[in-house]
Structure prediction request, 279 residues.
Amino acid sequence: MPNVAFVNGVFVPLAEARVSIEDRGFQFGDGVYEVIRTYKGRPFSLDAHLARLDRSATALDLTQPYSRVDWTRHVLEGIERAAYPESKIYLQITRGVAPRDHAYADDAMPTVVMTVREFHPLDRSVQATGVDAMTTEDIRWGRCDIKSVNLLANVLARQKVKRDRVFEAILVNAGLVTEGAISNVMVVQRGTVVTAPEGARILSGVTRGIVLDLARHMGFPAQERFVSQAELYEADEVFLTGTTVEVLAVVRIDGKVIGDGRPGLITQRLAAGLTSLVG
Ligand code: PLP
Prediction:
């Protein structure tokens, strides 16, 4: 079955999946989500994604309808039904259907949706050359640690990415680099890997955590602190981390060349390290 959908416990073809126009996800962006990919048909770091889904739901006082065991069963069934070589799984929980009112009822019944689509990894040539990025002001709300479906600021940033034909928008808040619109951002300064600290200003990426562990294991010091936009331009290496981008070198930002304009050695080592973890 191509493009599988799952709505409130029932698998249906994607084209037949429906939710109400009074769903609070639709009217208020009142919900949370996760994106997971498979390697060799198996979901990668599913437990970490489900743990973050729990954290996001709890932060919004949203009732998590399924246990991690239930979710794991549904995700595995979705992957099996879709039967793609590699899948991208999208999970979403919203506060459910109710007459429009900003405040919510304590007994709201959440709407749960999952889709499973074919995942096409980035072309290896993109990894070999690295990508261009741009900076843009981080205009997001004060709880970026919650993976909420309220993504307007990210939508606007990604539209600029499309307009300027670059790969990613690096978000800058009061002169400090927070993260990408769909990724975390890391820089290398004299052999040290530096990335924004966990907290309300960034999404704690699953890949970010794995890559920081990898760096430390490989003997590269890693620091969790904000870098300024000036430090970003002057870094020896810059790279993105994320479920879909993995470890991806950024070789130009706002037209300025980073390092020698090629993926740096530490970026390459970490990319290879991640590949060997998933393989
Ligand atoms: N930051 C933002 C804003 C994201 O949307 C994402 C992924 O979608 C990430 C970081 C990377 O998170 P992960 O590594 O869990 O995919």
